[in-house]
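Section 3.1: Structural characterization of target chains.
Under the original work plan, the team committed to producing a structural model for every single-chain target entering the pipeline before any wet-lab resources were allocated. The record below documents one such target. The sequence was received from the expression subgroup and is listed exactly as submitted; it comprises 355 residues.
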Amino acid sequence: MSRKRKAPRDASPNKRALNDDELIFEVLKVATSKDPELMILKLMESHSFSFARLKELLIRNGLEISFSKVKYVDIAPRVGLDPLKREQDIPLFDMFRARLPNEIFRKIIEDIDLFSKQYGTMDRHENGYFNRIVALFSGLIFNTPEALIEGTMTKKGHIEYQFKTYGGITIVFIDVKRETGVASERLDFIAQVIAECDACSWVNYQNGYRDSGSCVMTNTFTSFNLSADSREIHCHSSPWEGFQMDHRESTLRLLIQCSIRLLIVERKPLGTKRTKGPRRGKERLSTPGWLKAKAMADEALSTATSAWNQYNNGELGESRKSAEKAVQYLSESIEAAPFEKPVTFPGFTEDMVDE
């Protein structure tokens, strides 16, 4: 599936590094601009600088920058879209799915049943459910505690950064704070997606990463992908958008969405590699540990995707075996990766339960 549209500007020009005096001067220009968020994105497009220092200067000048203020008519041309076509020219992409082992999905259903008894139905919860999927990565990625989201998230914004891996790649999930039934409001949501992805891409580039950014709008499960090289954005819409479902269909939808999320999360941290960025001339994945981790991650991704294809072909037994193998490969990949594993619950042993 594809839609033709004009090509965006080159995503990787030669970026000139700004010294502190130059950055201060640019921030002063931002402070007097009627569109400060767009000014910052343009600054990121042409220069490299300390992001921490930029935030410090913005706070010092009393600037509250929020990409929720960005309008679709202003941001669309940055990624080669025509605002007058109102998102209809965003190219589509096929979303592949991974198969979760039955035991893991059963635990997800049990958890959601328990949470619903504690906090009410899922539509009343402040963030999405990721516990079991996140746990597969043994501390490589983290979920945002539900209690923290309301306190840390701007009241005017709609995006919460759920995951950050290796200090680089960010997967963004859209937390919807109001209804998006009006077409203009949906366009502004997409505008914020583009702006956030653009900024994330710049931060990744600063750290030597050139991987695409992935976003999921969790009220409709519309997925977006922004290419780091071409700055093209693509989308994939959920087949259930706008449909009313009974309990069985809701469970099926949950399974498929968990499978898609597993695939997105699995691709990012373990499929990530550093290319020759602006500050580094060496490849990151050069040690035997990283090479084995990458090889096993590729095997996990391929096997999990094959498991879903086998399921669609009616090969249920083979599909279950492949899903279990995929989780095993993922575990081996994480074990091989030479990073410091966090201590989650030190000193705990099973016999303590009996005592």
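Residues 16-65 form one domain.
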